[in-house]
Amino acid sequence: MAHDGGIGPEVPGEGVGATNLFVHPAAAAVYLLDGRGSAQYMPEAVPLAAPTGKTFHVVVGSPASPEFRLWLKHEIGAVEATVLTVPSTQTRCQILDDKAVLILRMARPSAQPDDVGRQLMGIWIEKSRVILVTDVNVAELMGWTTHARLSHGPSSPGDLVARLGLRAADRLEPLLEQIGDDLDRIEEATIIGRARDFRLRLAALRRTMIGLRRLLWPQRDALNTLELEEMSYFSRKDRARLREASQRTARLGDELQALSERAVLVHEHILDQRSEQMNRAMLILAVVTTVFMPLTLITGMFGMNLHGIPFAENGAGFWVIAGFMVVVAVAEVAWFRRQKWF
User: What angle do CA 15, 18, 19 make, to 5 degrees?
Assistant: First the structure.
């Protein structure tokens, strides 16, 4: 059915927020899921029939598209559309009667741990439609294509959201593994005494973990909130899948917390090594100062320009005093060693 700018004629008796599924949104991709695991891409030229039974539509659009944002505002309302499209929106879950707004954040594909930038995914959930507002390549994320009918797809809106939560965890898991490998290398360097070369790297790693922790825990809470809410079209299987996604996110959070605690211990080990090095240097300086204090006293006394200084007229006097000073120094060092001062 034709459309203009993504907003077609309203269904009689329906206004803003109505579920007008007969109009294909502009600048968006639409998939039809039959509720039995099959997903089919719907080209823009194909009229969209109203879902029946367990079938539902998945609409995917970019928040940067003016046409899609206009369609979204018409479909679900200005306030909800703003929540889904504002880039600074925090991870959360908001229930609106029998509908829900869910905000998830995903790590970028092939991201490095230092790249704490995240991609936003706004999700509008209702019985017969799920709207995904994101710049994430959802087809690649979910394994969908635009040219073939797929199998093993989500069987319900709740199943789809749970799979998105699991995919978000999938993208975060390699980052945690890389952080763990980096931390292992820093810990090994600390053991062999090369910690000073990795102090800045450890500080950057800890900042990265703080950023990831801010991502994981709110995401777990949002998925948990959606699983606990009484959505009429969520089955027990859907809630179990949502619980699985929440628990997996929580597991990654626990793993990240363990890595953070290891990083703190490595940092403390580095500080202990530096403190030990400084203490040893101070001990050596103290020993040298203590050894030379009586020698300085002796040289000061024999260096006075006064009559009556012993050995002043003796040609071998210098060597006698020098030998005496050597004996005193050796005796001091031997006494320090006996006391186990160094």
Answer: 150
Is 13 within the bounds of a domain? no
CATH code of 305's domain:
1.20.58.340
- Residue 135 to residue 85: CA distance in whole angstroms: 10
Q: Identify the domain boundary among 244, 272, 300.
A: 272
Q: Two tokens at 254?
A: 């626990």
Can you tell me the distance from the alpha carbon of 308 to that of 145, in angstroms, rounded to the nearest whole number?
107
What six digits make up the tokens of 106?
């995903």
Per-residue pLDDT in tens (0 to 9) along the chain, 342 residues? 333 333 333 333 334 444 444 566 777 888 888 888 777 777 776 767 677 778 888 899 888 888 898 989 988 889 888 888 887 777 889 888 889 999 988 877 777 766 655 678 899 999 888 999 988 888 777 776 654 455 667 888 888 898 898 888 888 888 888 889 988 888 888 877 776 667 788 888 888 888 888 888 888 899 998 888 888 888 888 899 899 999 999 999 899 999 999 998 888 888 887 888 888 888 888 888 888 888 888 888 887 777 778 877 777 888 888 888 899 889 888 888 888 776
Query: Which neighbouring-strand residues pair with 41?
Result: 31
What phi and psi values does residue 24 have, to the nearest 5 degrees? -80, 120
Alpha-carbon gap, residue 254 to 156, rounded angstroms: 29
Are the C-beta atoms of residues 17 and 73 closer than 8 Å to each other?
no
Q: What's the pTM?
A: 0.70
Q: Judge if 34 and 96 occupy the same domain.
A: yes
Domain limits for position 312: 283-338
The first and second tokens of residue 280, run together, are 């040893």
Amino acid (one-letter) located at 4: D
Closest C-alpha among 15, 16, 166 to residue 79: 16
In eight-state DSSP terms, residue 150 is B
Structure tokens at 142: 């979910």
Looking at 217, 240, 272, the residue that finishes a domain is: 272
Give residue 29's region: left, alpha or beta (phi > 0; psi -120 to 50). Answer: beta
